[in-house]
Specification:
The structure holds three protein chains of three kinds. Chain B contains eleven helices and no strands. Chain B is mainly alpha-helical. The radius of gyration of chain B is 24 Å and the shape is elongated. In chain C, a hairpin with a 3-residue loop joins strand 6 and strand 7 (about 110). The radius of gyration of chain C is 25 Å and the shape is globular. Chain C starts with a helix and ends with a strand.
Chain lengths: ~300, ~300, ~550
């Protein structure tokens, strides 16, 4: 088991090296000139040259790549082209909002998703089953930017249940709509997954045995079936990290929240390459580590899995 | 030895593939029919495809003709009426017509993106699964690296950095989507290549590409179809998000995402029809593909019999 | 109907009564001003700022020597008065006494300068700082006519020779040659006085810790979320009754990227001022008759045609492009009539505007005839490049349909602002959207900057227009000091440019602002909403 632990952890290294390479390619071999953006309309060519030189944009690509690897490993990610804030600081200042959103959404998704999934599975092919499936699938199918606006019109303007968008002074109420909006997608996936694994597990021998032993239906479900149905849910938490990090982009924009998602969209439209590099690297790293954790935690949840 | 193998091979051809696949198909169809949600999904998908193909015959209006210049303010953002069932937009264009043509654009982009994804996914997934070793290591490495990126940001970055075009849009989407297919294919190939009939073929000296094409491919089609059907929904959503954010298809091309984005302000203002109808179209279509895909998976999965 | 009227009257009476009561109590003081910005301001360092969001922040925290009044005339700010020498090359500014830098900032932290008085030496330091090659200010060249600018930039001298402190309260600026709009340039948000102690203390991070002399001092800047400022209790300005200004206790600018959400927030009452996007225009006009402000702005919106590229190397094609569109109807139907159709280049409220200029009117037949004459009887296909924005898209989509009527197939292509600018400056884009809003109120800032052949490329002449007679006229007007002669020169030059048509002239901008009914003394500057000040604004809620 220890050997597996080491091997799996070391396996992350080439992936991270690759991620850095792709980030570099993405931000280097594209047309357009980031120095221009700093200058605004009517910049003078002389200052433009100075800025390009300072950014290292006049060096050959392979020199820039070697320098980039060095910079990443020494955490020297530079400063934003746009406002001169260090990349580390830019990410740090946005992280709390995005982390709150992502973790909140994940909790909602797991709690609601597993409950609805079990309910659906134990009521297979009834109208309740159909309703919960449609409800959760609507979550996947509704565009965030559309639902977000409708929610604000209804809950903020018409009903006054939430004070508005943005952060206020950090009160929890401001997070309610965004977390719900962000959480529906992973929730729907968890509902589907829980439902199908539950159905599968219920028909398996050991559950049948438990039933035959005269255990109550509820006990069968919660003690035996659920425990095993949860394993794929853990996997999906890992995989959904990436999709949550994508989801925050639209959610944060529509709810005026200062998070990493909005930072990254702005950085893309402004070609603020240091920020793009920093945020993308950070998000990819979070994803890789989350999945590493998930992989390693299987052993604790499911003793049947042996680490070969 | 060789005789035995030969027998096995012919067995495989007659029963192993054709018959099982026939019964599997019948069996699956029977299961699919029982699942009402899947049928609903299938109907929506079929409707969507029919609408997309027959667009010009379904409406008397031109999707790009702006009526305000000739008919004036009366046709500007006119509410739903007998003439315009979904109302008109700021330029006096019939919204129903644009929603119908929007289905066409959505279908074009999602089919193009999905075909490329499936093609790349099958090729790389099969190579990785079949050969294993260094080839598998490299392909898996590429998949893991690309998987680590938040896909929407990745697509936006590509689309934003180059001049926009339809080709760029679906290429960028397939660049991030092929991995899902490749993963599924690789897993399937790994389990199938251990099966007797493949080993037999290999022992007989059948060429690798022939084995992959003749024996492996037919057996991985089902999971690929499921994955692709579910993926169509995601791709339609990604495309709409891109146009919503101002990337992707350009006016006057009727795209659902763009219609929602343009109609958003008017929606908050009470002139809801410009934004709401395309939103309903997206929701229904994506819902349809998901329901259908889910049903297909349940039906094609031998475990859930 | 009657019932409704009565209730309106009743509410009105109530509001008047209420606000009278509140007024007596609060007597114009206090309150937090809640505002919204559409994007995070990139820069609060005046030397680096190039955009309007940054400018709006800087105008609250810092001050210039002179400023514009609401009609667009120059008036004193930190300079109480000034003299201009006979040869129009030396400006002597008499500085206001008793102006202090902020003593505290960011929650009561003392500043490095300690709140000392501003003297002429500070202005000398600031001008040297801005124009220093090390600062790399993208706006330094605005004052490149100051004597010794080139020598200082090249490193031949270690200071800007033309800016001198005569005594503690007298500043002298000498120019290389006369430059009529010089005072106007000085009102630009880069040329504010900065305390050298704080600039040096923060170095690279100065952008995040601005300290100036303005009516408000900096409190905090949560990126992408909110900028907070608080009252400068030591501010030099008093109201007509001798009361200390500003009235407001604090300013709060939330960043709300989506105009629809901004409108929702305004409806809820969470913000006091909002941008009004086209969908909300009629609503705003109807429901806020007294607090919806609109003014013609010193700006022009146009589609540039690269005169070096086919088919725009033919004057007839360029003229046809102008005849083919119905500006009036587009503005009326698509923009709710909120802009002014453009006949030429100079905006209507600018000095030198020519009312008699004929310009182009909608005439599709003439457009077709001109195209046929130029050999394009079957029309042609061209790509319009524009920077990503819902508003630009809205206009482009309308004009695209009109061009189709005369056989011109316009494809649209949007790019982010930086890339758009880049390709336009390099002359790669044949047909592009562009707009220009004055840096200072003078035709020089339009005609010379945007169309003189010396400025082809990044300097501003993106259409790559070149006309000898036009060049001579605009150069002459730059140096001439007699307003009447300048005006005539500019009008002649504009006529040439309109005839040659390097642009599709579309409209002149309007600036606007919608504030809540309980906001008092708000004044919309002619220069644009971003220049609004809150020195004497107060809230009666």
């Amino acid at each position: 088991m220890f050997a597996y632990f080491i091997r799996r952890t070391l396996g992350v290294i080439p992936v991270i090296l690759g991620v850095i390479l792709v980030v570099f390619i993405l931000t280097t071999i594209v047309p357009g000139d980031p120095a221009r953006i700093m200058m605004g309309q009517r910049g003078d060519p002389e200052t433009l040259k100075l800025i390009r030189k300072e950014m290292g944009l006049d060096e050959p690509t392979h020199v820039q790549l070697v320098k980039f690897y060095k910079d990443v490993f020494t955490l020297n990610l530079g400063r934003s082209y746009r406002n001169n804030m260090t990349v580390i600081e830019s990410i740090k200042s946005r992280l709390p909002v995005t982390a709150t959103l992502a973790i909140g959404a994940m909790i909602i998704a797991v709690v609601l998703g597993v409950s609805i999934g079990i309910y659906s599975a134990t009521h297979q092919y009834t109208w309740q089953d159909y309703l919960s499936m449609i409800f959760s699938l609507l979550g996947i199918a509704s565009p965030v930017y559309f639902v977000g606006l409708i929610m604000v019109i209804i809950f903020a303007r018409k009903l006054g249940w939430v004070p508005g968008t943005g952060l206020g002074n950090g009160e929890w109420i401001y997070y309610v709509l965004p977390i719900l909006t962000l959480g529906v997608r992973p929730m729907a996936l968890i509902v589907r997954l829980t439902r199908s694994t539950m159905l599968e597990v219920v028909h398996q021998d050991y559950v049948k045995t438990a039933r035959a032993k005269g255990l109550k239906e509820k006990a069968v479900i919660y003690k035996h079936a659920l425990k095993n149905a949860l394993i794929p849910v853990i996997t999906i938490i890992g995989l959904q990290t990436a999709s949550l990090l994508s989801g925050v982009m639209l959610t944060e924009t529509i709810y005026s929240l200062p998070g990493l998602g909005r930072l990254s969209i702005q950085a893309v439209t402004n070609r603020d390459f240091p920020i793009i590099r920093g945020v993308v690297l950070f998000m990819a790293l979070v994803f890789v580590l989350a999945n590493l954790l998930v992989d390693l935690s299987y052993g604790f949840f499911d003793p049947r899995i042996r680490y070969e | 030895m060789s005789d035995k193998n030969l027998n096995k091979k012919s067995n495989l051809k007659s029963e192993g593939l054709k018959e099982t696949s026939d019964t599997l198909l019948k069996d699956s169809w029977r299961k699919l029919k029982r699942n009402k949600l899947a049928l609903v999904g299938m109907s929506i998908v079929i409707l969507f495809i029919i609408v997309a193909i027959l667009a010009p015959y379904l409406t008397p209006y031109d999707p790009v003709e702006q009526l305000i210049w000739t008919e004036g303010a009366a046709v500007k953002l006119a509410p739903p009426s007998a003439d315009h069932l979904f109302g008109t937009d700021l330029y006096g264009r019939d919204i129903l017509t644009r929603v119908i043509y929007g289905a066409r654009i959505s279908l074009q982009i999602s089919i193009a993106a999905m075909s490329i994804s499936v093609l790349i996914g099958i090729i790389l997934g099969t190579l990785a699964g079949y050969y294993g070793g260094i080839i598998d290591d490299i392909i898996s490495w590429i998949i893991n690296v690309l998987y680590a990126f938040p896909f929407l940001l990745f697509v936006i970055a590509i689309v934003a950095f180059f001049p926009p075009s339809l080709i760029l849009t679906f290429s960028a989407i397939s660049l991030v989507y092929w991995m899902s297919i490749a993963r599924v294919v690789r897993g399937q190939v790994l389990s199938i290549k251990e099966k007797e009939f493949v080993e037999a073929a290999r022992a007989l000296g059948v060429k690798d590409w022939k084995i992959m094409f003749k024996h492996i491919l037919p057996n991985i089609i089902a999971p690929v179809i499921v994955q692709a059907t579910l993926g169509m929904g995601s791709i339609i959503m990604i495309e709409a998000s891109l146009t919503y954010l101002g990337f992707g298809t350009q006016p006057p091309t009727p795209s659902w995402g763009y219609m929602i984005s343009a109609g958003q302000g008017y929606l908050a203002q009470g002139q809801w029809w410009w934004g709401v109808f395309p939103a309903i179209a997206i929701i229904l279509t994506v819902l349809g593909f998901n329901l259908f895909g889910d049903g297909l998976r349940d039906a094609l999965d031998p475990k859930s019999r | 109907m009657k019932k409704k009227l009565i209730s309106i009257i009743l509410t009105a009476v109530l509001i008047v009564g209420l606000s009278a009561a509140v007024m007596a109590e609060t007597d114009k003081y206090g309150g937090v001003w809640k505002d919204a910005l559409q994007s995070n301001p990139p820069q609060m360092d005046p030397a680096q700022s190039t955009d309007t969001k940054s400018a709006e922040m800087i105008y609250q925290l810092f001050e210039t020597l002179v400023e514009y009044d609401s009609e667009g005339n120059i008036k004193p700010l930190l300079a109480e008065s000034w003299d201009i020498s006979e040869d129009a090359q030396t400006y002597t500014f008499h500085l206001r006494k008793g102006v202090h830098f902020h003593a505290e900032t960011e929650g009561g932290t003392p500043t490095a300068n300690g709140g000392r008085e501003v003297t002429a030496e500070d202005w000398v330091w600031t001008f040297n700082h801005i124009t220093s090659p090390e600062t790399k200010s993208p706006r330094a060249y605005f004052i490149d006519m100051i004597k010794g600018y080139d020598a200082y930039r090249n490193g031949e001298t270690d200071k800007l020779a033309g800016v001198r402190a005569v005594d503690k309260y007298t500043l002298e600026v000498e120019l290389e040659k006369p430059f009529a709009p010089f005072l106007g340039t000085l009102a630009y948000n880069t040329f504010v006085v900065m305390p050298k102690e704080d600039v040096n203390k923060w170095g690279e991070d100065w952008n995040f810790h601005p300290v100036g002399t303005g009516a408000f001092k900096f409190e905090s800047w949560e990126q992408d979320s909110v900028v907070r400022m608080s009252r400068n209790d030591n501010y030099w300005m008093k109201d007509e009754d001798g009361n200390q200004l500003p009235y407001l206790e604090a300013l709060e600018f939330r960043i709300i990227p989506d105009y629809t959400m901004m409108w929702e927030e305004f409806q809820i009452g969470n913000i006091y001022q909002t941008y009004v996007d086209d969908p909300f225009y009629l609503d705003a006009k109807e429901n806020y008759p007294d607090t919806f402000f609109e003014l013609p702005q010193l700006g022009t919106y146009y589609y540039g045609m690269n005169v070096e590229k086919e088919p725009f190397d033919d004057k007839r094609v360029r003229q046809a492009m102008n005849y083919a569109i119905n500006r009036e109807m587009m503005i009326e139907l698509v923009q709710n009539g909120r802009n002014t159709p453009a006949k030429g280049i100079i905006p209507p409220t600018m000095f030198g505007y020519n009312e008699e200029l004929e310009g182009y009117s909608y005439n599709p037949d003439k457009a077709r005839a001109l195209l046929a004459e130029a050999g394009y009887q079957d029309g042609f296909e061209v790509t319009l490049q524009y920077n990503t924005s819902k508003g630009h898209k809205r206009v482009a989509e309308a004009l695209q349909a009109q061009y189709r009527q005369v056989g011109i197939d316009v494809k649209l292509q949007n790019l982010d602002w930086g890339s758009h600018l880049d390709s336009v400056e390099r002359g790669e884009a044949a047909f592009f959207r562009m707009g220009w809003v004055a840096d200072y109120n003078d035709p020089d800032n339009f005609l010379y900057v945007l169309l003189h052949s010396d400025n082809i490329g990044p300097e501003g002449n993106y259409a790559r227009f070149s006309n000898e007679r036009f060049d001579t006229l605009t150069e002459y007007a730059r140096l001439e000091t007699d307003p009447e002669k300048r005006k005539q020169a500019y009008q002649q030059a504009e006529k040439i440019a309109v005839e040659e048509a390097p642009w599709v002239f579309i409209y002149h901008y309007t600036t606007h602002s919608l504030v809540q009914p309980y906001v008092n003394n708000y004044e919309l500057p002619a220069f644009g909403q971003h220049a609004n000040l809150f020195r004497d604004v107060w809230i009666s809620k």
